Amino acid sequence: MLNHPSLPTCHFLLFSLLLFIYCWNKATCSPGEGRNIWQQPNMDPILKQQSFLHETFPPGFLWGSGTSAFQTEGAWNQDGKGASIWDSFTHNSVSGNLASEAANVASDSYNRWEEDVKALEYVGVRSYSFSLSWPRLFPDGNARGQPNTAAVKHYRRLIERLLEKKIEPVVTLHHWDLPQVLQEDYGGWKNDTLVELFEAYAAFCFHTFGSRVKHWLTMHNPYLVAVQGYGTGAHAPGETGGPAASLTVAHNLIKAHAKAWHTYNTNFRKAQKGKVSIVLGSHWVEPQRGKAADASVELCQESIEAALGWFANPIFVDGDYPVSLKTKYGALLPTFTPEEQLWVQKTADFFALSFGPNNLRLGQNIIGYGQTVTPDLRRLLGWIKLEYGNPSVLVAEGGWFSEATVGMEDTVGIYLMKSFVNQVLRAIKLDGVQVFGYMAWSLVDGFEWNYGYSIRRGLFYVDISKPNRTRSPKSTAQYYRQIVKDNGFPSDETSQEVKGHFPCKFQWGVADSTLQVTRFYPFSPQFTDPHLYSWNLTGDGSLHQVPGVKLHTRQAQCTDYLAIRDHLRLLASTGVSHYRFALNWSLILPQGDLSDVNTEALRYYRCIVTELKKLDLEALAVMYYPTHRSPNLGLPVPLHATGGWLNYSTVNAFQEYAALCYQELGTWVQNWITINEPNRLIDAYSSGEDKHQAAHNLLLAHAKAWRLYEKEHSGQQQGLVSLALHADWAKPANPFLESHTAAAERFLLFELGRFLDPLLGTRDDDEENKGDYPQEMKAYLEERARVMDLPRSPLPNFTETERKELRGALSFIALNHFTTRLVSPLSHTQDSFHQKTSPDHDCLILSDPTWPSSSLRQALVPWGLRKMLNWVSQKYGGTLPIIITGTGIDDQASVEDRLRQHYLRSYLQEALKAYHLDGVNLQGFYVWKLQDHHVPQYGLFTSAQHQSKPKASIAVYREIIANGGSLNNDSVQPCRFSELHEPCFVCSWMFKNKAMLVFGGCLLITAVMLAALVVFVTVTKRNRRRSRGRGKVGLSRRRRKEGACLCPPGVKR
């Protein structure tokens, strides 16, 4: 035999053991289950806890904030610090002042670190994540040499002060600021020499600071270093090596991390008892909308693997890259040897995640067709749990950015923070993810890499133009402080459910817009056509009118309108007591005056109200229902042509129209709305002056119509008249700024106060001050006119006569409420005043992304209804009844409209709280609306095109009505409303089958008459027989008697 050289026996056995373990791992480790996350249903906005969870984090949750050395320290060449690749990159990129365009000073945290600690104390966090500067500690990059003693002293002082304040340091070894000398000598992270150099640097840090540090992070988001630094050149060192360079750099970064972990595990863990990990960044992606097929899910999986899995799979799974990367890059992808795979895998004691704008921007480049990148931190945490076996997770970077011009008022940042932190809470409580800490990024404003100072991410504002670099808390700092104090989002008392009943005469209703009168004439001409016809006279099978012959006909009846019958049948089945619908002004009076009255249209509406009465239902009729979609804003053409509501003649025309409505329909209508949502109608006018003039004339038109009813019809008809306002609640977008509180109040005054104040005045107004616009609104517009150099305020003035006419011209307060808005002030500068798009109230409307919303982006905010009701009640005295004349939400479900069911339950619960707990005189609630037109939206029934099927929300509404205001109400009801207004199904069936009942009645009567005739004939025949029998017996008796008497004399018997 040939003799071959052999390894020493022990080495051979060790190699065999390693190979066996490697092969066993390959055979037994199944792929991660992360892809299953896309098979699970996404957030359900109907479930309250899915949209926003009011609960607290686990005890001991690690709240913190973070910074990085290069972004905040400044002092780029102070105390012996060496240059980093980012110093060189920025110095070579900027063209002007280095202090304002580079990070030479930045936030000056190297010199102002004590102010940073005070900032941490202000927020109340328990930890601070910061990075050590490698070139500050070792200017030449070689940790085997002597360190910079000034740098060591600086970091020791920082760590000690943090511990004194009971703030735990979470220390990152390397956050992108590689010593420039290592880039020049070795080519940076492209060279695997840096693996050993980083190991030495990590060992020094563990040795020097490790006794005081329990959480170490080797490096921050290596994905961006590999791709942006060496692939695209967007980051330092600015190399454009493409995918090949990025893959090599990533390979070396992974090995460097593993080396550092093993160094700590072997030499420091036992004594220091700390933990080591690496911060990995990722985006999140959802499949093409409406699709979760295997192919689409696989694309999503590959997208996350291309960023997060690139580094996490080797470190947390099997020491090797995901299969998708191997398929994509082939031979371009470096490989780990079996030995390397064994010591790379499982080299993290917890999962540290970075989730912010940098990765989400890059995520756009690694998504497949139809996918969407979304900031869904909860879903990403769920994926990590499934993919990597439910590790402990630290959100090491969480947050967004704002424009530098925002300054300290970073209002939008509040809601982004609220969303991110609550997503973490839901991941913990609902999905079982083991998140133990959250680092709000960042503590102070700093240099934002290739964006410089144009964007800011700090909780504290730093004015880089001022030498003192004062830290000023932003709104997000105040909000985060509250979250930390509360340890999350504890529920408040307003979330507690109440039980009770609304008053007995509560108006349970359904609201509709203008009823479309498509057919004035009866559906069938059977009883109304006076002509006589012959059929098939010429053999063509058609009818031919017989000339000269006319028949008597009956007058038209409401039963001829089959559409009315079917429509009201649907309405009655909902269990409501009232129906709100609108008349068509332009149809009734096409010319805008009484010269042309459409009597057929009036007859149609008369049929509506009379048929409602027959069903024991009350009408709430709207005289004028303007919409931006309708021609001429719903006005008769001649009125619109002469200026519409900008012309006072329309006021008089409306009074004339109202008089006709009262006269023709008032007998059957107890509740009137003169104008629906005049505060939305004025939005159709472009200039601020036109808006004010239109609102002015709308108010006068309503007042004239109200006074007319009071004078001529109220005594006989006993009805009530109001106007309906769109009344969404306005919440200050920033709860920490008085300017936002003032803006929200101003918004409500312009929306509601401008109409209600002239009619009702406020609780504090004297009688003589009533009948005018809100004083605050008048003062604001006067000041605004002064700033804009206008001669006067655009707000018209009421005459004394008009003010008298306006005072008290409201029988009840009608509000259409759908949602809640966040309101913030626009910038009060002269430039903003002159913007054409700037509204007169100078308010900006925002929305809270944590609020659940419908497909049409209507936010579902039940508590806003209660807030609105209280505001109106408190401001206007609380004596007049308040009626919600329209509320609802769109739901795309064809039958199982779960969103609408939740809407009805939650909004009516808040209405009940307002009535019982707050003393609001609420007297009605109308759901918008009865039926869809085409696709599923707001209707309780599907459209007629889909045979008007009832949706599931009807059963919910019926049950609430039957219980007097809430579901499962077991308390004693003060009245049996359900008995009073429960629809008569027998009556409805009889009404629907009248013809059959009449025919059956005729048959019954005929049968009875025939039976009577048969009985009569039978009895008559029987009597005759009896009479004939009695006649024969009498005759025989007479004959016998006569025979005895007629014997001849002398004859004996």
From TrEMBL:
The keyword Repeat applies. It comes from the Eukaryota. Keywords: Cell membrane, Glycoprotein, Membrane, Repeat, Signal, Transmembrane, Transmembrane helix. Pfam families: Glyco_hydro_1. Residues 1-29 form the signal peptide. The chain crosses the membrane at residues 996-1020. GO terms for molecular function: hydrolase activity, hydrolyzing O-glycosyl compounds. This is Klotho beta.
